Known about the structure:
0% of the residues lie in helices and 51% in strands. By secondary structure, it is mainly beta.
Amino acid sequence: MNMLNRIIAMVTCLLLTAGHKTPHAGRVVPITDTSNDLKQLCVLEVSSAQANEVSEFDSAVFLPGGNTLITGIGGAHYGGVLYWDLKTQKVTRDLTVYERGVYQVHSTKDGKWLLGVSAEHALFWRADLGVLLGGLHPNGLARYTRHGALTPDGRYFAVSGESFIDAGNERFTRIYDIRTEKYKSRPKLGTILACSPDGDTIVSCAGKNSLIYSIKKDRVTRRVEATEWKAAQFSPDGSKLAALRTGEVEVLGTLDWAQRGPITGSFNEDSCLQFLNHGQQIAISHYAGRSSKVGILDIFEVATGSRLSHTEFNEPIRVIIASPDQSLLAIVMRTRVEVFEANLARK
């Protein structure tokens, strides 16, 4: 374990124009009637977080209550975290981490602790203080920690990525115990995709196989052979797991791991998943084609697989995230974040 020594306090706030609406906002295309439209609440934009440094949105997470959205941003030589007040659409805190980007941001259930996954570190901090408390370099080698998960109770976080050694690239996974400040285990899990609401189960993809791993048992409890999941997410109550592979999303029951029926579409390795309406609906992103710059968001009824809404954006979608109470939906793209009410009518 290699703890960072620096403690970074929040810096000067960045104020953006309140109520500003971009002409590039998503165009909602209803499937049946207007009751199924997404209602846009606000658009957040960031053009520069540092002098002569153009930044991009990489990730986001809501704090409990849904009034604050935390976004990870980054550029060629800069990374940081912005706290947004959604009512005023202003940045209230700017936390600089001095790395190339914060690719993922995760929150505990109570919103007290946050985990950020940057290019070379797993960073953790107190959300209410807005102060970086420390970070972990997985092994002191040159590594990319591109994926991570934080258990909702804040006990463990897991990171995965690649290390660069003389013999070539090596994939790694680390489970870190926040209370003891020690690594709990170093399982060979591949890319971490999701963590269950009870904080015990991690879903990952290792090569051509997908794995279900128990933190408490410290072992793989289920192996899905010849199935390469690209993304995964648990429903809020943990009863369902949505797992994406090219062309379809499987919805599995977590008690028997039986498939509840696939949702098919032009999904790919860049697609994102997000359960809505307490697990009854699911949002899935994709794009019109490899050469297309159009990002597409489709929302489906989980029980029937029927599509409720189809929304097109002028940029590919990087992240979909819902507020803890499932009432808000944030769509993260390179240059902006659009926030919607997630109250689609059910068919």
